Amino acid sequence: MDAQSRGRADEIDPADQWVLNPRTGSYELQLGDSAAQQRPKVAAPRRSASAPAAPTAPSPTAPSPGVPKPRRGDGPPGRRSGRSRKGGGGGGRRKKALLITSGTLAFLLVGGAAAAYLYYDHLNGNLSVTDVAGAGTGGFKKDQAINILVIGTDKRTGAGNENYGDKDSVGHADTTILFHVSKDRTNATALSIPRDLITNIPACPTKQPDGSTKTIAPTKSTRFNTSLGQEGRDAGCTMRTVKELTGIEVDHFMMADFNAVKTLSTAVGGVPVCLAKPVNDEEGSHLKLDAGEHRLEGEQALAFVRTRHGFGNNSDLDRIRIQQQFLGSMMREMKSKETLTSPKKFLSLAEAATKSLAVDSGIGSISKLTDLAGELKGIDTKNVTFTTLPVKDNPAEPEGSKATVVVEKSLADPLLQMIRGDVSLTEVEKKEQAAKEAADADAKAKQDALLQGNRAPAGDVRVSVYNGGGPKGAASTTLNWLQNNKGMSKASNQGNAPAKVGATQLEYAPNQADQARALADAMGLPTTALKMGTADAAAKAPMKLTLGPDFTEPGAPLSAAPAVPALSDDVQQAQADKAVCAK
């Protein structure tokens, strides 16, 4: 029984419900301290023959590696039990922690999932881990964007899957999504890459079972989906291909086969979908549904994301849109209250997700996956955008037999530039960006007006020079140039800046404007590099010039930051928070 069946879901803190009893070594259902005083604890329900196995409880005397040893009265790590809580703060913190792990990994996988108990030691054994021989970065940093390559293979292992197309497939990159998480962790872009795209596959070192490395030769002008499986290529080969294709370095990969869609859609209780018209795909997926709303799981869910003859123009590009709609709906379902308050769903999702996942060694444990989920906790589905790499029919193929596509560079280049530049595609972020651009334009106008005033004599310019990302020795070189070439004898070298900057900037006070004008003229600084404070500086206080990665040498003009490219309306986009009907 879960909280929903008792009508008390709004009162239940899900982290309170399943607690390790250190005396018995079993996990027990506990409804919070007040409820525990009124009701006896209920042992975790036995699974049926068809239900996924519940995690094996770690021994209280010999905890598994990586799992903190339970203390008397403690529940799972990160929560308190056995004592009454004063106020609502404790419960709120636990709910927030729960949300970090339940739902955020859904963004990363076709049916990906996380649950409150992902740290159970036995779940590590469910994961399949691959050494990608340096294809990824091997990690992610808190102050940088994260790029995860999500791969759905067409390998037909598992009961009933041989009926889908090529039953002997070695497992190609059938569904590929580059999931870009922004540096500030507020938004994400999911870029689908068509499997029939003609591209180059670079040379690919692969780890062999005996520990040796075998390099697979590059291939020119071939289908993208053969970057996996063909000639023994592993997921690292697909990662290398994506990097060469997009210019975006991939941190990690996650891969799943057909069974993932079936087991995860079932574990979550079905995924809601909407059809604008009836579908009867007799020649392909055998999907047969009436128009209207449906909740799909198992074989029906797989048939929905596999059909190429039910929607649009019966193409792979139309199937990509259907898959994106399905993923958006699954994200919403996993973050719903019905899922978050059900221990049964948590356990089922944890089992199904980990058994479905193949990952690189950089995230090859439950603790690392939970760390990754923590990085994604602030992303709302309204700030997740699905899009597809713009392509066009392959001109090398004759009319009437178009089977492959090539990149449409005029549309793809601005899109890829936005992703590389960490620019969000969501409507919410666009509005915030527009407001920021308006504010920046106003500030620039004020700066332009300010620079029309007088310039201070070179000998009166006081400035401290820092290197915040420029070439090695840039501060020293600039100091010598200012003093010997420009007569600014009161300049000083302060070495490395406390932190790196994205671009060169000059910080000054309003009463130093004449000095700023003189230095800007000498250095060739654009108005966007000038940062005026609000309060006047003390007498003889220096300005602060921090040299950034755009700085090359003293006297070389710095260009203004490149404008954000305009994205064509022809670039397909879909927001994860919006339910649409498949056509």
Major beta sheet, strand line-up: 4-17-12-5-6-7-18-26
The major sheet is characterized as:
8 strands, mixed
Helix/sheet category: alpha/beta
The number of helical runs is 14
Strand-residue proportion: 15-25%
Radius of gyration: 28 Å
Q: What would your notes on this structure say?
A:
The chain is an alpha/beta fold and 583 residues long. The chain is built from 14 helices and 26 strands. An eight-stranded mixed beta sheet has the order 4-17-12-5-6-7-18-26, sandwiched between helices. Strand 1 (18-21) and strand 2 form a beta hairpin. Helix 5 crosses helix 6 and helix 5 packs antiparallel against helix 9. The longest helix has 24 residues, at 427-450. The protein is elongated.
